[in-house]
Structure formats: structure tokens, C-alpha cells
Amino acid sequence: MGFDEQVAMGFYVGIMFGVVLILKWGLKSVNIWVYERYLGKTTRERLPPGDFGWPFIGNMLSFLRAFKSGDPDSFVSGLAKRFGSRGIYKTFMFGHPGIIVTTPEACRKVLFDDDAFQTGWPKATLELTGKKSFIGISYEDHKRLRKLTAASVNGHKALSIYMQHIETEVVSALEKWSQMGQIEFLTQLRKLTFQTIMYILLSAESADVMDEFEKEYKTLNYGIRAMAINIPGFVYHAALKARKKIVAILLAIVSERRKKREADQGMSKRDMLDALIDTEDENGRKLDNEEIIDTLVMYLNAGHESSGHLTMWATIFLQSHPKCLKIAKDEQERIVNGMPPGQKGLTLKEFKQMEYLSKVVDETLRLVTFAYLTFREAKKDVDFQGYIIPKGWKVLLWYRTIHLNHEIYPQPNEFNPSRWDDLIPKAGTFLPFGGGSRLCPGNELAKLEISIFLHHFLLNYKLERENPECPMLYLPHSRPKDNCLGRIIKVSI
Length: 493
Description:
The protein is of the alpha+beta class. The chain contains 18 helices and twelve strands.
């Protein structure tokens, strides 16, 4: 190749490179033009730093890449490196422009200021969980529904009743697993927690629909935080089909239960469904079928996924930290030895005595951060820390970054229940169940389930994992790729 040809080739390469850069810049400007053009000049100038990413998909590719790489925290740390460490960034995710917040101050502001922020979950989550569930309704409706259902889930009387059933199921499951040989520990825990929430919500109907429900809920859960692409082959499409089946089953159950309760006015309340059917507000208004079904769908989904995963992680953490395991086991032995003669099973009294185990649960909640982010939406332009959060934009509260912040929790990646000995978390620094008016309504039930399981596991069993160094998956929730394959070994007679 002659000199002239080399120059020409270099010129053409340079032109092509320039075209690619211009094309990339142009494509990355599409979302900016679409979503910022209607904002006033002052608002545009005071938006947080950030990147809207590619047209339509925004930053979803970099988000998914980080979570599938084995380093999910690289997504937010990448933003901090590019745009500074103030912990507030503009973005485009899940089909909407939004603001990511990663600091306690920002999360506290968003969670507790109901005048400025409302629920803002993505379309996929709303459609699958239900527009009349807790996450889809207005502040006033949420307040009303929460008041009507609180006693059925977290009330002292309800928890006392649930304890008996949970303990019976845990004892039976552990004995069964110890005889099964190799099992997927997480899979079995999810079945156990699913059976528990089904009993709490639907009691007698549980046995008839258990297997079908569990299968459909697994499909539904994978679509909860997916992009709302309703085309065959996409996760969201399959999840919508699963929801239709779930709703059809629940509608039949609700309709039949209504008939029974109308025919027998003195019929006692057996479960949460009975309570939802009977309950009424101060104006005498009762819940309609759609409200009841969406409430059940939400509780069924949230009530077993988190408990199952967190129980697995608490077990793994304890077994990999022998000193912590010994302290926890000694505490449970003291509690059993201190029970009155003739008492069979645990009561809330013993549950409240599990002080170290409570720290184990809190440390697991912090370290795992099952719900690594949640969503709100600005009801008006909000001025915060010198930036403007525009009306209608989503706010993504990134809890995981807060829980792993070394300035808040020294050596944050270390499992250390004793860090809670003298620690009273400041507002916005410990958010495993969210916060504010929309705090997760089943938080006490979840802790109760985990603690009862650990009580019996610590006293009588151990876990032998097949692949302790198994690679991790982080979507939709953190878990070993093999679902914690191993054996449950009975260590006492």
C-alpha cells in the first residue's frame, strides 16, 4: 500500500470513527430530549448529574451487566466515579426517567415526606402485584387498607396463633429434609414459607391449591422487576399469564368463602381472607373482590420470598462463623431450659428472649438487603440538597448501598451480629423493610418465621453444603447458583 493509499485509509477510518461517536452521542441524547425538553431552564440546570443511557432502554443494560457480573455494587459505584459521590444521580430505568438516591438523608426525605412523594413502582410491578394492592393505591387508600389488615398480619394475637402453626411446620420439615439426602435448601425453604403464608391467608384452601400456586408465583416473581415487554418469550409476558391463573383461582376461593360467611353469620374467622371479607371502615364500606385479591397476591408474593431467602442466608452465615453459631445455639438452649414445665412449643415470651438471634436476623437483613431498591414518584418539583427532583419522575432508593456503607457500618461486608450490641440505627440507615407510611406490613411476621426456624435448626441440625464456593446470582434476589445444594444433618436425638 502506497503512502497516498495509507493516508486515504487513515482518513476514512477517522471519518468512520467520528461518525460512530456522533451516532452514539445522538442516540444517547434521545432520552434527554424526550424527557427534559418540557422542563423549565432552571429545573434542567439543577438536575442531579447522571446519564440517561440509550433510547428506550436507558441504563438497564449497565444495571443488568453489573448484577450478572458478580459485582452488583459496581453499578452505583460506577455512577459515583463518573459523577461524584454525593449519592444522587439522574437515570433512565424501567421505562422512566428517574433519580437514584443512595444516602440515608435522601432516603429519609423520600420515605417520610408523603406530601412530596408517592408510591412509584414500575408498570410491570403494578400490573403483576395488582393496582389495588398496597403498592398501587393512593396514600389515603393505603392508610385505610393497612389499618384494616394490620391486626391480621402483625397483631400480637395473630402472631401468637401463627407461631403454633409455623413451629409445627418447621419441626416437620426439618425432620423430613434430614431423611431426604441431598436437597436444594433454598427451594425447600421457599416451599416451607409458602405453605406458611398460604395457611395464614387461606387456611383450609392451602392444601388444594398449594402446588399450582407455588409454580405460578415463581413465574410471577421473576417478572416483578422486569421491563414491561408483553411479547412471548419475555419474562413479563409469562408473568402476566401466571397472574391471570392466580387471580382466577383466588376469585373462585373468595366467591365461595363469601357465600359461606353470608350463610353462616356466626362463622368464626379462620384466616386473613375471613378478616378481609368481614372488615369494614368507619363508614361501613367493605373491600371488594379486586381489593381482596390484590391484597392476597401482594402478601403471597412478599410473604414467602423474603422469608425463605433470608432464612437460608442466616443459616449459611451462622454455619460459616462458628463463634456466632455457638453464641446463638447457647442462647436457644437457655431459652428451652427456662420454659415452664409442661409447656409445649414456643410462645411470644420466648421469641422476645432471643436477643442474640434478633441481632443475627438484623445483620442478615442488612448484609443481604433482600429488597435492594424501592420506588417512589415525585408529586411535585422537590428541591433537595441543591438539586431539583422533577414532578412525575421516579425516585429509586438504593438501600443496598446504604447497608454496605463503611462509614455507617465498619467492615460492612463482614457478618458481625455483635455490631448491633450498642447500635441504634439512625433514621435512613437501616431499611430492610423500607420506612415511613409504607413500611412493609409483614415485617414482624417475617422475623418471627426466621427466628422459629433458626431456633429448631440450631438445637438439632446442621447444614452440609455440596458447593460452598458456588457462584452467586443476584437477580431477582441474591442466592447461590445451585440454590444451596446440600444435606440437612440431624445432630441430636
